[in-house]
């Protein structure tokens, strides 16, 4: 049985926590560079994605805040591990908490805008989700200022002196529940919008996997905070949860196709060629059909009918260019022999 409260175990957990912070910082920086083409396209105004009512513009703002607040939070957290002289540790940890919570809030808000876009901005969905989002913002904003830290001259490092564990646990559970609600509402919206879509299509093509990642990652720190194994284990999963949630939320904007981008496009579902006149339908009918999943409401079809014309269908008419009276008259034997007689007369 592991004694989680022993000093040896706490020291070991601290080493694991530091390694996790550095590892996930490297993973997140790699992710930022991998998706930097999206940001550059937005800056150059080459990216023209439009979610109606400015939904995409709002999501883009929260996307930038989310991405770079987390970079600043992780960089400041790594700096706190390498403090060699006395600094204002309280200000440093307040900044770490503020920027980290801001990245989580903006990630959840980005998922919220995506869900609203799927439901086509229906007020019956937008208003309740908006109130839940405001409540989450108020709760996590208060959670930015629940940590007290000071410089320890003995260990020459910043040490957390107090932290309201119960309030921190509430923020974890609130974030997890909010992401779970967004996941459920998003699934319901996809089921109403995508007729006949399979679960795997919703999971990977419609981005449901990102919602599930955001929900499941926040479940781990919420559970550990309730178990209360030790001070380090209570927060050891916060950095992985924040990084994976932010990556998932940003992917919904940078990688997924825009919801409703085909609303203004008209695509025919079938083209039919009818047989020529006089040919039985069972022999000459040719049909070209586009097989596609009926994932969207039925649209009008375009039927193109062509006639196959052959020369056998036409009879010889008096006005034809090759009528009988227009053909050259054949020469009689006497007429064919006249040139020979003229040649003999000339020779004489």
Can you put this structure into words, describing what you see?
- The protein is mostly helical and 348 residues long.
- It is built from eleven helices and four strands; from the N terminus they run αααααββααααβαβα.
- It has a two-stranded antiparallel ribbon with strand order 1-2. Strands 3-4 form a two-stranded antiparallel sheet.
- Strand 1 and strand 2 form a beta hairpin.
- Helix 4 packs antiparallel against helix 5 (123-142), helix 4 packs parallel to helix 9 and helix 5 (123-142) runs antiparallel to helix 6 (165-193).
- The radius of gyration is 38 Å and the shape is elongated.
- The termini are far apart.
- Residues 257-277 and 279-296 have low confidence and may be disordered.
How does the SSE layout of this entry go?
Elements: H1 7-34, H2 36-43, H3 55-80, H4 89-118, H5 123-142, E1 147-152, E2 157-163, H6 165-193, H7 199-205, H8 208-227, H9 238-254, E3 270-273, H10 281-284, E4 286-289, H11 333-347
Antiparallel strand pairs: 1-2, 3-4
